[in-house]
Amino acid sequence: MGLFNARKLKEKRKKARWKKKKYRDRIRSKMGKFLDPLEGAPQARGLVLSKRQIEQKQPHSGMLKCVRVKLIKNGKEVTAHASRDKAIEHIQEHDEVMIECIGGSQGKAYGSLPGVKYRVFKVNNISLEMLRTGRKQRAAR
Q1: Beta strands per DSSP E along the chain
Q2: For residue 124, how many other CB atoms are within 10 A of its CB?
Q3: Is the C or the N end of the chain the one with fewer CB within 10 Å?
Q4: What's the pLDDT score for residue 34?
C-alpha cells in the first residue's frame, strides 16, 4: 500500500462488488439488462427453433431433451425442457409451444438441468402430456 495506491484500490473494490449478488441485481435492473424473458408472466408462447440434448450436471448422468424457443412477445430465445419419456418426439421445429417456469429456487435452474429455467407443457394448443400418453393426436396439416 503506497502513497499513490488509491486509484488501484478503488478499481479493485469496483471489480469485487460485482461478485455480490445483491449489488449485481440492483445495478442490472437499473441498466435494464436484468429482465425476465417472460416479463413477469407465468407462461409464454414461442416458436421452436431447434431440438437439442443437454448433459446433466454431476453426479447425475444422462442426456436431457430440450428445445430452443423464440418467444413471440419479445423475440428473446430461451431453452425449455421437454419433460418425461418420449415427449421430444411430439415436438417438431416451427411448432408453437407454451412454456412455463420450471420452479427452481430464486427463479433459477432446477436440479441437474444446467441453465434450463423453463419447460414445455403445450404443443400447438394440445397438452404435451395428452400427446405423450396417446390420448390426443396432433392436428394433421
Answers
A1: 43-55, 63-71, 77-81, 96-101, 118-123, 126-127
A2: 15
A3: C
A4: 53
Tally the domains of the chain.
Answer: 2
> Per-residue pLDDT for the chain (141 aa), expressed as one digit of tens each?
889 999 999 999 999 999 999 998 888 877 765 568 888 889 999 999 999 999 999 898 999 999 999 999 989 999 999 989 999 999 999 999 999 998 888 778 888 888 899 999 999 999 999 999 999 998 876
Same domain, 63 and 83: yes
- Within 13 Å of residue 22, how many CA atoms lie on the same side as its CB? 0
Tell me if 112 sits within 8 A of 57, measured CB to CB: yes
Say how far apart CA 132 and CA 135 lie, in whole Å. Answer: 8
By DSSP bridging, strand 77-81 and strand 118-123 are: parallel
Shared domain check, 23 and 54: no
In a domain, 10, yes or no: yes
Q: Domain of 65: which CATH number?
A: 2.40.50.140
CA distance 21 to 80: 25
What is the residue range of 7's domain? 1-34
